Fold this protein.
Amino acid sequence: MTGAGEEWPSEGLDVLGAGSGLWVSGVDYVAGWRDAREAADRLNRALLGVGLELSEVRAVASTDENGRGVVRVAGRTNAVGLIAGLLESVSDGEGGAS
């Protein structure tokens, strides 16, 4: 790590280092994460309901830099292909649901 010292990640920025990104002091990330967690849990239950395994594809709760909830979907290509097929089957072919 480079910088002036152990406090380098937050020197003069009013931010805290956090894994793969930065957390801004004073932003309520917990509330956004809770909302995202509820949505991710709902999507994970739906994925299980159509026979997918969470080891193949899953929704993961997170937040953006403003503390808003974000749900990311990560999965193996075959499982994501199955989800795409399911969504295409309810699509009207013009970018909307039928």
